[in-house]
Design goal:
Helices cover 75% and strands 3% of the residues. It is mainly α and 286 residues long.
């Protein structure tokens, strides 16, 4: 592949996106896919495949940092992977069956849905705080206790496990089909519904996503290499040659910033951004 600096500006932009994604637990592809579709004018299937590959390296870098901090609940993660991986394979297979405009429409609607769910979960959290319902800190009643690398204890209970498995299926299929959904649904279940401490919930969610995305991105690249032809593969590689180094850097910065950022500001800002981008993408369909 002949290296072109046409997309060199994606390197610093990828650092910023990956840092936000890793510190909040939100999948980086939810930022990269619309960026590739709207700014780079890539076909939806190509944009989604490139976004997944980019996210894989970013989350792969970040999960290394979270594992060192001993914040990943591997038991919960492995249980969710049993459902997300088969669903992701299903999503990859059927993404090729959808026309480009339908794929773009599904992605846009998915963005609006995820954004609205993130915002509504934040509103619910604020309401419960105001009502004094979140006084319980699992000091006495809890099922899991995780001790991180600094010796800090996190006590929590994974509630409604069937809902978590359902979200893993839906999110996994969405990852394979439109590159987004799994991280956001897992965050909603673990943080908003089960009150799992944010560092553990985010780290565990990222572990589930990185393994699922590995499977999904492998499926997309198989299609690029053997189905779409060398021109498409070269186009994808010319993009990720700049995004991958950026997300690797951001993958290390995100976990370090996670404890210093205001989670409410992140959640509200990202939810509003998702809704705006999703609605804008829907207007570009006509």
């Amino acid at each position: 592949m002949e290296l072109s600096f046409q997309y060199s500006y994606l390197f610093p932009l990828s650092i910023l996106i990956s840092t936000i994604a890793m510190s909040s637990g939100i999948g980086g592809a939810v930022f990269f896919s619309p960026l590739f579709m709207l700014a780079l004018k890539l076909e939806p299937s190509i944009a989604i495949g490139a976004a997944l590959a980019t996210e894989l390296f970013g989350f792969g870098s970040g999960i290394y940092a979270y594992v060192k901090k001993k914040l990943v609940d591997f038991k919960v993660g492995m249980n969710l992977l049993m459902f997300s991986i088969p669903a992701a394979v299903f999503g990859v297979i059927y993404s090729d069956a959808l026309p480009a405009i339908a794929l773009k429409a599904v992605f846009a609607v998915g963005l609006v849905f995820i954004g609205s769910q993130l915002f509504s979960s934040w509103r619910q959290e604020e309401k419960e705080k105001a009502d004094g319902k979140v006084a319980e800190d699992f000091a006495e009643n809890y099922e899991s206790c995780l001790v991180d690398a600094t010796g800090k204890e996190y006590k929590y209970t994974i509630c409604n496990k069937n809902m978590g498995r359902l979200f893993a299926v839906v999110g996994g299929a969405f990852v394979g089909m439109i590159s987004v959904g799994l991280a956001e649904l897992q965050d909603y279940h673990l943080i908003a519904r089960c009150r799992v401490p944010s560092p553990v919930a985010i780290a565990t969610s990222i572990f589930v996503v990185v393994v699922t995305v590995l499977i999904a991105s492998a499926g997309h690249f198989y299609h690029f290499a053997f189905g779409a032809g060398p021109e498409v593969l070269n186009q994808v590689l010319s993009v990720i040659v700049f995004t991958v180094p950026g997300v690797i850097v951001g993958g290390q910065l995100g976990p370090a910033l996670q404890t210093k950022l205001n989670p409410d500001v992140i959640k509200v800002g990202v939810s509003v951004l998702f809704v705006i981008v999703g609605l804008f993408m829907l207007t570009t369909l006509v």
